[in-house]
Amino acid sequence: MRPIIDNLEQILDSDEENRYEDEEALRDKIQEIFERGIIQTEALNFIRGRSIVGTYLIIDEAQNMTPNQVKGIITRAGKGTKIILLGDPMQIDKPFLDEKTNGLSYAAKYMKGSPYCCQLTLSAEECERSVLAMDAITRL
Q1: Which of 1, 20, 53, 110 would disulfide-bridge 78, Cβ 3.0–4.6 Å?
Q2: Helix, coil or strand: residue 84
Q3: In sequence order, what are the residues at sequence separation of 6 or more whose Cβ sits closer than 8 angstroms to the Cβ of residue 107?
Q4: What is the pTM of this model?
Q5: All domains in the chain, ordered by first residue
Q6: How far is CA 63 from CA 17, 28, 58, 91, in A?
Q7: pLDDT per position as a tens digit, 30-49
Q8: What is the C-alpha to C-alpha distance for residues 134 and 130, in angstroms, rounded to an integer?
Q9: Distance separating alpha carbons of residues 9 and 5, to the nearest angstrom
Q10: Quick one: pLDDT band at residue 70, thresholds 50, 70, 90?
């Protein structure tokens, strides 16, 4: 859940010069988002057997999922559910997955052309975390 909280901190406390001046207030805002059920988190293990209806389901780090896991998620979409798969095939940390065999690339390949699917690919300049991160991607 920590990556979600990190991203919420960046969104809610976007003033880089004054960031983290009031960490308690920021923590309270994030806690309220979860308490009100605006954002909910669940482990992937608990998706089996479910039909997820009327939900925006955001899966981050989808490049670290297997094709079967991605299929398992997409096939649980009930009426009104939108699924967003996020990830970077260059940042895989699973030993048996690579740039082409991971769940994100699998979904992109097989869902391409579906009238129910839209795909966006960002350039490196649009999604770089830092100069160091980009340098590591090209060197490691």
Answers
A1: 53
A2: strand
A3: 62, 67, 70, 74, 85
A4: 0.76
A5: 1-38 (no CATH), 42-139 (3.40.50.300)
A6: 33, 31, 13, 7
A7: 999 999 988 888 777 778 88
A8: 6
A9: 6
A10: very high
